[in-house]
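Ligand: AHG. Inputs:
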Amino acid sequence: MSNLKTLGQFIIEKQSDFPYSKGELSRLLRDIGIAAKIVNREVNKAGLMDILGESGSTNIQGETQQKLDVYANEQFISALRSGGECCLVASEENEDIIRLEEEVSKDANYIVAIDPLDGSSNIDVNVAIGTIFSIYRRKSTTGLATLKDVLQKGVEQVAAGYVIYGSSTMLVYTTGKGVNGFTLDPSIGEFCLSHPNMKIPQDGVIYSINEGNYVHFPKGVKQYIKYCQVEDKATNRPYASRYIGSMVADLHRNLIKGGVFIYPVTFSAPNGKLRLVYECNPMAFIIEQAGGRATDGSRRILDLEVTELHQRSPIFIGSANMVKRAEEFLATAGNLTFHDAEPVLTA
Ligand code: AHG
Ligand code: MN
Ligand code: MN
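Predicted complex:
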């Protein structure tokens, strides 16, 4: 008991990191932690409850929504609504921004962008999934908060985090002063500080990319993959390939062990697949705070201009030296150069 520090205690202790803070951000983080516990309860019973399977609706990107996607979205939004610190939510599951201002206090100055359930294709198969969140301060000073208040560069984030519902459930977050990880102790229902001051190794031996899309990758990415597979004792190659298909889980492992996660542009996804506002930016903030690197292949993710809520971006993120090496291959090959004709294997 003596060494136990709960998420709630930690957040309160850290409040003094922000001079003049009135505790709103602390309350907001606490609210997200509570919603995460509720979602975790449902995730854990996914195999038992009538919550598996498709809900029958699709989200704005045309993807089939799983019931847990919908459930998680509702839980996080309602926690933010009742918490009263957030004036506007942007979610992967909602085409438009969700205004809470009229329901919460006029002093609610925070904006939350969220991917309520990341890795939804893994729900039905008992593989780790997650939640990603990003917090901004409202910029506009009069009237209702608008879409523009969400379209801030990643560098403006005041906090970001993720929850991983894995073999154990963890909440990892940053407020720009390092990264701390908390493991849920189900016996007491509390997130407890288990991974203080997380740092990602500068080098690693894991590369994470959906290699099934290989023929659709730019030349530089193909060459980097081949580089990872070449035998070289000095650099510990060949590297290990590890790809779960839940960005949160793939990045969590790479954060702890060292590694690079890549979701590049492809022929079919010319802007990449992952979403800048609620996937790339929060993860980039966390990984940079842990000493890693995150770019779109050449530009820092956190500096990218944000023009649309559901904007996509390619991403190269993880151990700094691995990301840099991948960027070198892209620069040499020309970032967006694809092979001319792709080989077609016939039966
Ligand atoms: P989401 O479940 O929120 O739509 O996100 C899925 C994302 C991300 O978690 C994962 O890294 C990636 O999609 C996997 O995509 P592929 O199946 O194309 O590899
Ligand atoms: Mn996602
Ligand atoms: Mn999602």
